[in-house]
Structures
1.
Amino acid sequence: MSNTIKLLKKETIATDTMLFHWEKPEGVEFKAGQFGEFNLIDPSESDEKGDSRDFSFVFAPAENKLAIATRIRDSAYKQVLKDLSEGAEVEFNGPYGDFSLHKTESTPAVFIIGGIGITPVRSMIAQATIDKSAHDMTLLYSNKTPDDAPFLNDFEAFAVKNDNFTFVPVMTRADSNWSGESGHIDADMLKKYISDVNVPIYYLSGPPGMVWDMREMLLGAGVKDNNIITEEFPGY
């Protein structure tokens, strides 16, 4: 079902990364981890990639907000989106997708996420925290530097509120002031935080290359293929 929705607010939340708040259409309900399709209406410029993109919802259903976050690239779509004024309208379709937290609370969840792939995971972890679910959740979140990492403060807050949630930010190019994990996520880093790698369900999202590399790393560590759930974020 298609809805025309208005932009309520936009803000920069990390390097070249913006958060867009939209009015939530009446009757539209979504699950944590789902996404919607956002179509520009009569954009001032266009290119061969078209005027429509899919974006995951940043907030949990219980937070009752409709928002998306994206890296701002040079594509016509992203440039028009960046320059939209408050009150501008887009056509919205959705929700779609089944990238969501498994129901069995006794089975741990491990999220291995790169960059803007964090958006559906923020929704899932927020909802589980609000619900006080018993899921044991660990997030390994990779970015170049803290300035490149959206929602760092949110996850630090969730870790305080939720005793079942462990947050592991990982920076690949951090300077000497960074006290957390550095370098790339590998099997040794995984085993530092996960005592038995065969038990959890793993969620991978981010750039396709990273998702592929992390899937290969998990398989190499002995994780079964059907315990790995993926969502790729192409860099459009």
2.
Amino acid sequence: MAHDHGQHGEHGHEHGQGHAHTHIDFAEMLPMLEQEAELFTPLYAEAAGWLRERQPEPEMIVDAGSGPGVISCLLADTFPKARVVAVDGAGPLLEAARARAARLGVADRFSTLEAELGDGLGDLEYPADLLWASRSLHHVGDQRATLAGFAERLAPGGTLALLEGGLPSRYLPRDIGIGRPGLQARVDAVEQEWFTRMRRELPGAAEETEDWAGLLTAVGLRHAATRTFLLDLPAPLSEEGRAFVATSLGHRRTGLAEGLEPDDLALLDRLLDVDDKASVYHRPDVFVLAAMTVYVGVKA
């Protein structure tokens, strides 16, 4: 499991691994996961600040599906007295998380645990005062059972912060002057079909209405709050922002190719051609606009 954008509307982890299979190798996606989480840091920092108002001094924080640890380290910075445990099923991502914690000077209160979320949170020594799960739950077959497992690992009065849903991100105007208007909406539609297949093929897959607040209540937590956070990086976009947009569109171009129309594939090729003045590397109207929703549940 790993943090992702999209999805993480968009369902995260920049899926789009093709229609032939829906297995996702998150370790292979390490550079993209880091690139995205770093660009989205202002959004995550705002969310963490909001959580600090609700849970001011947690002693133990668990990042369930931590990926390369960008947000885990942000949580360590936001809560300077807390111990942070990054939990993920991909060893190479946890290795990157430990290296990041060392670079940022929080290694003395930062640890990792390799475990699949669907199998529980492994051998956690202590219950969590704050459990953060960012776009990792939807990669588990039985989301309700996994949420129940999260709830069990909370200390009394502990907080579960679940980041799921939001709105599809936008990088370009509807009409960009080349190709048929509405490219991103069409890509989104193909990606939604991919996501439905991905969910269906997960081990132990169980259909679940995506009423996240309702699911928190169903597993015995009190739904305390819901809030959506915005990342608004207007044009003209920084080089880092352009690089992220190119990575994101390129990943979809590769992974969703079988479901996209030939004219949209050709349009994506132009947008990704560094020598084309109409590409995302050069055009003046590229931006990043994303909205992500956090649902908070509290254990009695």
